[in-house]
Amino acid sequence: METKPLNIFDFTQESLADFLVEKGFSKFSASQIFDWLYKKKEVDPQNWSNVSKKCREYLVENVDFYLPKVIWNAKSKDGTRKFLVQMNDGQTVESVLIPAKNRLTQCISSQVGCAIGCTFCHTGTQGFKRHLTTGEVTGQFLTLSIWLRENVHVDERITNIVYMGQGEPLHNYENVKKATQNFLNDKGFGLGQRRITLSTSGLVPKIKMLHDFPPVNIAISLHSAVDDTRTELMPINKVYDLKRLFEAIKEIPLKAHRRITYEYLLIDGLNDQPKDIDALAKLLEQKESKINLIPFNEYPGSNYKKPSVKRTLWFMDQMCKKGFTCTIRATKGDDILAACGQLKTEYEKLNTWDNQVEIVPVDKKVQEIASL
C-alpha cells in the first residue's frame, strides 16, 4: 500500500493532471478538483459531486488533505489581523491580513524563520528552520480565506498577496513559484498579476532566474544605497553588494508600464540623512523605480529607532523633488507586532515582550548566505 508523500495542495493544476493520468484517471478531473478546492473552497472530496467516485477514493487513500491550521489570532485597533498558522509537523508561521480601501492584502510567509538575518527584522532573530512546501504557502491563503468566510462574512475576500512575511521567498524559489502559479490560475484563486508582489532581500542568483517566474510585481528590500550601511542592516550585502544586485536587477523582465518597487526602511539617524538621499537618487532609475518608505517598526530588543513623522515626510519630499515616485507605507498592526519586520513565531510569547534576542555575528551570517 502506498504511503502519502504528497499533499493535494502541493500540486499545480498541470502536475495534478499528470498525476491523475498516470494513475488512470481523466486529465480533466484536475480542472474540476481545482475548482472545488480554490473557487468553491470545498476541501472535503466527498462533496466533489462531479468528480468520479473512484478518483475521489483514490485521492483520499493516497494523498494528504492537510491544510495549515489557525491556532491563534489577534485583531489590531486598525483592523489588521495577525494569525499564527500551524503546519502538519507542528511548525508555525505568522500570516497577516491588512485591510485598505477596496482591498484586503495577505502578507504570506515562505519559510519557518529566515536565513538572511537582517539586523532590523524580528524574524531574523529566530534563525532558519525549514522551507514551506508549495501546499503550505498555498494553504495559508486558503486557510485564511475559509476562516474569513466562517468568522467574518461569507463574502469576505482576500484580494492581494505580498510575499513579505517570514522568510526570503527566493530562497524557497520552486515552492513559491508553484504556489504563485496556483494563485494566478483561473481555475485556482484567479488573482491578477498586479495583485501579487514578490519581495526579495537581494538573493542575486535567484533574481537572475526571475525570467522563469510568473510575471508579478517585484519589490527589492534595499534600505540603503550606501554599501557599508546596507551591509550593517543586511548581511546579504556583503555577499551580493549593490553593484552585483543592480546588475541582476537589470535582467528582470518587466512588462510594459511596470516598475520595480524599492522598499526603504527608514531608521532614525542611520539611513535618513542628506547623503542617503543623494546616494539613492544616483543609484535608481526614475522611470523604472518606485520608492516605498517604511518607518522602522520597533520590536522587543531592537537596536534601531523609528524616525519622526517630520523626518519621514522630509525624506519623501526630497526624493519627490528629485523626480522619483516616493510613497510612505502606512504602519499597520504594530500594536500586535504584525507590522513590517515584527513577525516572529513564538506562540508562548505572543502576548509578552521578549528581550532575550540573540544577535548572530555578521561574518557567520555571511557564510550562511553564500551557501544559499
Strand order of the largest sheet: 1-2-3-4-7-8-9-10-11-12
Level-2 CATH architecture of the largest domain:
Alpha-Beta Barrel
Number of strands: 12
Element-by-element helix/strand order: HHHEEEEEEHEHEHEHHHEHEHEH
SSE class? alpha/beta
Uncertain parts: 336-360
Query: Helix fraction?
Result: 25-40%
Mean pLDDT: 89
**Number of helical runs?**
12
Principal-axes geometry comes out as elongated
Element layout with pairings:
Blueprint: H1 13-22, H2 28-39, H3 53-62, E1 69-75, E2 81-86, E3 92-100, E4 103-107, E5 111-113, E6 128-131, H4 134-151, E7 160-163, H5 173-184, E8 196-200, H6 204-207, E9 217-221, H7 227-233, H8 236-239, H9 242-249, E10 260-266, H10 274-283, E11 289-295, H11 309-321, E12 325-328, H12 362-370
Parallel strand pairs: 4-7, 7-8, 8-9, 9-10, 10-11, 11-12
Antiparallel strand pairs: 1-2, 2-3, 3-4, 5-6
Feature tags:
single chain, 372 residues, alpha/beta, DNA polymerase, domain 1, TIM Barrel, 2 domains, ten-stranded mixed sheet, two-stranded antiparallel sheet, 12 helices, 12 strands, 31% helix, 18% strand
Describe the fold and architecture.
31% of the residues lie in helices and 18% in strands. With 372 residues, it is an alpha/beta fold. A ten-stranded mixed beta sheet has the order 1-2-3-4-7-8-9-10-11-12, covered by helices on one side. Strand 8, helix 6 (204-207) and strand 9 (217-221) form a beta-alpha-beta unit. Helix 1 crosses helix 2 and helix 4 (134-151) packs across helix 5. It is elongated, with a radius of gyration of 21 Å. Residues 336-360 have low confidence and may be disordered.
